[in-house]
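Hi team,

Filling in the usual template for the complex we talked about on Friday. All components are listed, including any nucleic acid strands or ligand strings, so the model treats them as one assembly.

SUBMITTER: L.P.
PURPOSE: interface mapping
COMPONENTS: three
RESIDUES: 1149
SEQUENCES:
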Amino acid sequence: MNMQVEWWSNIALATLMILAGNVILHKSALFGNVFKIIGYIYILLFTKGVDVFSNTLIAASSITGVSLTFYTYAYSKSKYSSISLPPLIDLFLISMILVFRSGTLIEFITFWLLTELIAFFLIAYDYMVSEDVNSMRASVKYLVFSMIPTDLALFIILALAGFEDAFTKHILDLSINISNPLVLVVIILGFFAKAAVIPLHFWLPDAHSVAPSPASVLLSGLMVKMGIYALYLLSSQIVDVVVSFTMMTFLGGLTAVYGAAQASLQRDLKRLLAYSTTSETGILSLIAGLYVLSRDESFITAIILYSLAHAVYKSFMFMDSGYIEVTIHTRNINELGFVSKLSPMQTTSTLMSIISYLGMPPSIGFLAKLYVFTTISKHLGDSVVYFMALLVLVLKVVVSVLYNAIYLKAHLGKQLSTKMFTGCSRRDEVALKTSCFTSSLYSYVIIIYALSVLQGRIIVQPGLVELLYATIAILLLVSLTLYPLIYIVLKRGTNGGVLT
Amino acid sequence: MNALPASILMNYLFAAVALSILGLTKHRKVLDIIALSASVTGLMLSLILMRYITSNGSITYTFGGFKPPLGVVYYADFVSGVFSLISSFALLISTMCAFATMSFATRKYLYILAYLLLTGVHGFIFSGDVFHLYVSVELIAISAYAITALYSNRSGNIRAALLYGIAGTSITSFLFLAVIILYGSYGTVNMADIALKSIFNEEYVPYSGYVFGDVSTASIVALALITWVFLFKSGIMPNHFWLPNVYRVTPIAGLILFTSSADLIGIYGVLRLYHVVFGDRCIISSFRTTMMSLLTAMSMISTFFSSLLVAKQVRIRNIVAYSTIAQLSIALSGVVAGVPEAVSGAILHVVANALGDALVLCGFTLHAWSSNKHMRKLGMVSISIGFVNLFGLLPIVPGFWSKALMSLGFLKVGNLLGVIVILLSTGLCAIGYFRYLTRIAIRELAKSTPPRDYSEKMLSIPIVILITVTIGFSLSIILNPYLLPIVINNTLDSTRSDRFIYNLLGIKPGE
Amino acid sequence: MDVMVFAFTAIAISFAINIAIAAYGIFTDKSLLKKLISLIIFSDTLAAFAVLIGFRLPSVLSDYPSPPILTNIPESVDYLEEISAKAVDPVPQAFIITAIVINFAVFSFLLGLLLLNYKYFGSVNVSVIEEEAGDEVY
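RESULT (copied from the run log):
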C-alpha cells in the first residue's frame, strides 16, 4: 500500500510538472520546455513498471518525451502557428506511460482506452485545425479497425477475469482461462489490430501518415508496442498454444514481409515509415509466437531489445520526416534529395539512425538484431518453424536495406535544384534539428541501459554472455573501419556528389 | 412504508392537477415553485423507496386494502425502483431546464404535461395489473404527443405529433386487445395471477377461479401483441419511424423526459413480461424461447443499423435520436439474454443513456444560446462528458460499466456475437459523436438568439448536477468493487417469477 | 341454442373482418382523416370484442343471461350465488368504459392536431404533407 502511494505521488508530481510546463509555455518557451524535460527525466528515474518489459517501455517513452519537447513546440509553432499541440501530445504520452506501468487489470484497461481516445483526436488533428477531410477519414478508419477490435478484446478479458480480480489482483498474477479457441482468436485479433498485424493492418499507413509528426512519433514508436505488450501479457495466461502460436507466428511473418515490400514501394516519406512499422510489429509478433511455442525466456529479452531499438529508431525517423515537411513542404521523395545540402547535420543524424536500424555496432539496433538471431539460432534444431522464422527475418533485413536506401535518397539524392526554407523561422529550424540529433544519439546512449537489462536477464546463461561480449568486441573493431568510409560518402554527398 | 409507490404517483398527479388549476390564475412564481418543489419531493420519495427496497426487499401495496387479484396492486422491487429513480431525476432536470429556457406561456403547459407523463410512467412501473398497464401507457402516450406538439405554432411539431399520435394510438389499441384476450382466458388481469396460472394452469385462485379454455394459444397471441407494443414504444427498429421525427422537434426539456422515462417503458415492459409474467417455466416456454432469440436477433440488427445512421448524422438532435435507438436496442439485447449480469447491464445502460442524452442536450442549449464565454465552455464540457458517456469506453463514465456487465453476461451464455455487436455499435456511434465534437471544438456553433426568458445561470445548475451525478456514479462503482455484485443480486431477485407471485398473491407456486 | 351459437360465431367473424378493414385503413390510406376514422372503428371493435368476452352462453339456470345488477338489497348469499351464475361478467364492461373515456380524450386531441395540421399544410394527405414539409430540420 505504502509503495503504491509513493508511486502515485511520483507520477502525479511528474504529470503536474509537465502540465505546468505547458502552461508556462505560453509565457516563456525555454522555461516551459525545460520544465517538461525535467518532468520526463523524473519519470525516467523514478517510475518503475511491473517487470523488465514495462520498465523498458517506460524508459523508451520518457526519453522520447524528452527529445520531443522542443521538437513539438517548434513543429506546432511553425506548422499550425499555435501551441495547442504540445499539451495533447503530453497527455497522450503520459497516459501511455500509465498503461505500461499499470498494476491491475482495471488500471490497464482504463489508461489503454484513454490513450486510444486521445490518439483518435491526434489523428483527426488536421481536421480540427484546417478541416482536412483525409485526416478525418483516417481517424475514422483507425477508430473502426483498430480501436474497436482492441476494445472488444479488452472487454472479453475483463469479463473473463471477473470484476473483483480485475480490481484487486496484480496484472502478472492474473490467471485467465481462455479455453474457447474462438474467443482466443477474437482476443488475439483485437491486439493485432493495435499492433497493425495482418489482417487488421491497413489503418496504420493512413493514420500514421496524416497525424502531425510528433503524434506519428508516438503512434508508431510506442503505441503499436502496446499491442505487443498486451500479446506478451496474454502469452503468460492459460492459452491454447497451437492457436496462439499459429496466429502470431504466421500472420506476424506475413506482415513482416508484406510491410517491408510495401515500404520499398512508397515514395511518401511518412507512408514509407508507416509501412516499415507494420513490418517491425510483424517481426515482434512472430517472436512472441515463438515464445509461446518454446517458452524460452530469451525470446522475451529479444522482444524487449527489439522494441527498444525500434522505438528509438522510429521516433527519430518520424521526427526527421516532420522536419523535412516543415522546412521544405513536401514529403515526396522524388521531389527531394537535397536535404544534405540544406542541413548536413540533419543528414548526419539520419545516417546515424539508419546505421542503428541496419544493425551496426555499437548501436542498440545491433544488439537487438544480434540477440534475435542468436536466440532463434539456438532453437534451430527443435523445429522447422524456427528456420522459417530465420528466413523471414533475413528477407526482412534485406528489404529493409532497400527501403532505407530509398529513404536516404531524400537526403542524398540526384536532385540539384534546391528550394529555400519557407514558413519556418531560423530559430524553430534549429530547435527541430537539434532535437532530431539528440534523438538519433539515443540509439547509441541507450545501449548502456540495454546492456544492464541484458545483464539482469541472462544471468543464468553465462556462456551466452561471453559469446555476446566477444561478438560485440569483434563488430566494434569492424565498425571502426566502416565509419571512416561512411564519413567519406557523407562528405561527397555534401559536396554535390551523388549517392545512389 | 407500503404506500410509498402510490404516494410517489399521487405526488405527481396532485402536482399536475394543482398546476393546471393554478395555470388559470396569474401567479407565475407560485407555479414555478410548485413545479420545482413537487419534482424535488418526487425525487426524494424515489430515493427513500430505493433505499427501503435495497435494505428491506420489495413493497406490495394494495389499493383500498383489496387483496389481489380482486383489487389493483402496486409492486415495487429493485428494477422498478431504478426506473422510478431515473425518471424522477429526469423530471427534476427537465423542470429546471424548462424554467431556464422556455417562456412562461409555454412552460406552464410543459409542467402539467411532464407531471402527467411521470404519473403514467410510475403507474406503468409499479403496476401489478395488466389493465392498469394499458391505462398508464395511454396516459404516457397522450402526454408525450402533447409535449411533442407543445410549440403549436410550428408546423413541424404538429406534423410529428400527429404521425406519432396516430401510429401510437393504433399500436396501444393492440395492447388493449391483448389485455382482453388475457382476461378472457385467464379470468384475471393481475400479473401475478397470470404468472401463476401460466405455470400451473390447473391452479385455483380465490376470486378469479380457474383458467378458461385453451390458455396457451391465447398466451402466445397476447405475448406477441404486447411485445410488439413495447418494441414500438422503445423505438426498436423497424418500429422506430416515429422517433427521429419526434426528436427533431420536441423542446429540449421534453426530450430529456422522453429519453429517460417515456422511451424506457418498452425495455422495462419486456423485462417484466419475459422474466416475471411469462417466466421460463410457463406453458409456452418454447414459444418464449423462440421470441427471445428473435428479439436478440432483432435488437442486434437494430443496433447495427441505427449505429450506422448515427455515423452519418451531423445535427445534434439526429445524433441523439439515432443513438437513443442504438442504445435502447443494446439494452433490449441485454434484457432478453437471460442472465442477471446482462439484465443488470441493460438497466445500467438505459440509465447511462439517459444521463448522457441529458448532458448532451443541456450542454448543447447552453453552448448555443449563451453569450458568456465561461458558460459556453461549460456547455462544451457537458457535451463532451455526455458523448464520452454514450461512447462508454472509459471507466470514469457509467456507460463503460453497463457495457462491461453486458459483455460479461453475453460471454456467460456463449453469445460472442453480442459482444462484437456492442463494440461495433460503439465504434460506429463514436464516428458520429466525435465528428460532432471535433467540429464544435474548433469551429464554434453559430450563436442563435435565445428566447426572452432564457437564463443561462439557471441552466448551468442542472448541468452541474448532471455532471456530478454522472462522474460520481461511476466513481462509486470504481471505488466500491462490491457495488456491481449487489446490483446483479438485486436484479436476479427482481427477475424471479416465483418471488413475484409470492409477494403479490401470497401463494408459493408448486405447493 | 343453435341460433345462439350461430349468432356468436357470426359476431366473432364480423369482428375479425372489422379489425382487418380498420387495420387496412390505418396502414394504407393516404388521408390522415380516414386513418383516424379507421382508428376509431378499430377501437370500437375492440370494445365490442371485450363485451363478447364477458358474455355468457345460455345455461341450465336461464335461457338468457341477466345483467350484473343487484336488485334485492340487502342481498343474501343465495341471491349473490344465483346472480353470479346467471349474470354476464361485469369486469370487461368496466374495462370498456375506461377505454372509451381514454379513447375519447386521445381522439379529440388528435382531431385538434389534425385541424392545426390542415391549417399549416392545407391538406390531410400524407404525401402532400411530406412534400410540403420537405427536409425541414431543427
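MY TAKE: The CA atoms of residues 354 and 404 of chain A lie 7 Å apart. Chains A and C do not touch (no CB pair under 8 Å).

Thanks, L.
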